[in-house]
């Protein structure tokens, strides 16, 4: 630390949730995790610039849209995709994850699948958010692409990401752009007026943000009950649309 002004942390997950006897040590861990550790200055400046530009138009919401191939394949969420897409996901799962028996058509029903972009839009509309709501998306490459994004964009056309708000973020080093982009997304989500994760299972990004926003005091977070909403969405897909707004 003294010589290089840096420390190396071994990989970990949910360490703050582990039991500890001394509450003062727990407070110290929280301060280290959410206060002492900070991103580099250029990341903070870019994040602040994006937040300022978003705030210049009023309040904004951030959504962590976890709908990438790796997560969908890992969770075994296949049944909403067409046969060719299912084949791609199953192949990716077989090549990248340990074999585990899953009943694929039950994963969504038990709340183990991320919300689709359209489901996010329907939830927000049911909560009385209208199409003037400005939304910042923290997302990677969405599996299924525009076919899944189009219904969401129709409901909420004012969608942004770090590239659309501040084109200078495209000038990031190609070797680090993905990591820096995620860091910028994290900070923008942290400072947003409302934050909504579409999946908060094995996702360090979403879970750290939930804790970080709580650490800094009351900041509005929307955490949909995926298991409770699953039958509503399934019924809607079968053209039984009644009751969604009350669900």
From TrEMBL:
An individual GO BP term: fucose metabolic process
Protein name: O-fucosyltransferase family protein
Keyword annotations from UniProtKB, A to Z: Carbohydrate metabolism, Fucose metabolism, Glycoprotein, Glycosyltransferase, Membrane, Signal-anchor, Transferase, Transmembrane, Transmembrane helix
Membrane topology listed for this record: Single-pass type II membrane protein
Subcellular location(s) of the protein: Membrane
GO molecular function, one term: glycosyltransferase activity
Source species: Brassica oleracea var. oleracea
Gene Ontology CC entries for this record: endosome; membrane; trans-Golgi network
Major subcellular site: membrane
């Amino acid at each position: 630390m003294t010589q290089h002004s840096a420390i190396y942390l071994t990989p970990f997950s949910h360490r703050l949730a582990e039991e500890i006897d001394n509450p003062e040590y727990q407070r110290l861990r929280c301060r280290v995790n959410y206060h002492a550790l900070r991103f580099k200055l250029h990341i903070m400046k870019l994040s602040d610039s994006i937040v300022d530009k978003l705030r210049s138009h009023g309040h904004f919401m951030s959504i962590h849209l976890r709908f990438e191939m790796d997560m969908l394949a890992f969770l075994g969420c296949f049944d909403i995709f067409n046969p060719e897409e299912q084949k791609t996901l199953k192949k990716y799962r077989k090549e990248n994850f340990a074999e585990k028996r899953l009943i694929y058509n039950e994963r969504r029903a038990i709340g183990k699948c991320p919300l689709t972009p359209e489901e996010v839009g329907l939830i927000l509309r049911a909560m009385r958010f209208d199409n003037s709501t400005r939304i910042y998306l923290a997302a990677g490459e969405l599996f299924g692409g525009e076919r899944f994004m189009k219904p969401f964009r129709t409901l909420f056309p004012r969608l942004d990401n770090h590239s659309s708000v501040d084109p200078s973020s495209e000038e990031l080093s190609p070797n680090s752009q993905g990591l820096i982009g995620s860091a910028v997304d994290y900070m923008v989500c942290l400072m947003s007026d409302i934050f909504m994760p579409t999946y908060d299972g094995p996702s360090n990004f979403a879970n750290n943000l939930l804790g970080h926003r709580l650490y800094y005091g009351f900041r509005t977070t929307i955490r949909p009950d995926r298991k409770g909403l699953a039958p509503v969405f399934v019924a809607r897909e079968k053209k039984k649309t009644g009751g969604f707004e009350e669900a």
